[in-house]
Prior knowledge:
35% of the residues lie in helices and 14% in strands. The chain is α/β, with parallel strands linked by helices.
Amino acid sequence: MTDGNAGMENQACGFAEAMGVPYTIKRVQMKFPWKYVSPFIRLGKNFCLNKKQMKLIPPWPDLIIASGRKSILPALMVRDKNKSKTKIAYLQTPVIAPKHFDVVISPAHDGCSGENVLQSMGAPHQVTQERLNQAYTDFSYLFSSYRQPRLGVLLGGSNKTYTFDETIARDLAQQLKVLIRQGLSIMITPSRRTDGAVIEILRESLGRDEVYIWEGRGENPYFGILAWSDVILVSCDSVSMISEACATDRPVYLLKLPGKGRKFQTFYQYLTDLGRIQWWNGNINGSEIPKIEAFNETKDLAVKALMYLQQG
């Protein structure tokens, strides 16, 4: 259950898949005034939904995996209607006390604690070896012709902490041009936050030889790029994309962006101490690319969450 935010929804779906439970996606929209005051004010929650966009009706689920602040009040409403038989697993750090949920999976850097709180270093996601194997087959028509070693580039964008502007794009383009001359091919996928000017700079600077840039049309090749890359470069603004890249067995580099956030720094340091990431300096030794043990805590957290739910 989410408000339709793609990042929140992907995390919830990945967590459900890791738990091994069948699921249905519910995108909820609240009406005035609850969309502004929930979940801090929970009075009248039976009337909180904009029913023109979403109705929640029986049969009630055994479990709700809720992600994002705006999913909290509808989830609590369903539990009340089902006489507390519906359990709630909440992803992210709730803005109300964890006791309102059966289990909470919260980023460790947020410092949320409680008997029913499981702390995560990264973000839950849908990357598994099985999905990567399937993507390798599904996207062979697209990426098999690109020479090795292949560098997959996952682009984020500016947010409240970091800036990904045209200056960064030009510097990155020059570094990638050097790697292409050294024999690498480049596979780039932007995200919803990637500025169009950034994509245009990369497209114009790199050309088309040994370079793939997703244009936003047709099937998103994101999993295909993860599966076909020998090395992965991720902009440092996205915990989700970094977590997904680290769930492969490929070396992962982080592209530094202007800005600094304490929460991000804790995450980076944890992965650096594991030997799972290193900061990008523009250089790759294409003749010595090791396989690295995948960092994928989603399954472990899902197993622990199931234990909490069964005990409750």
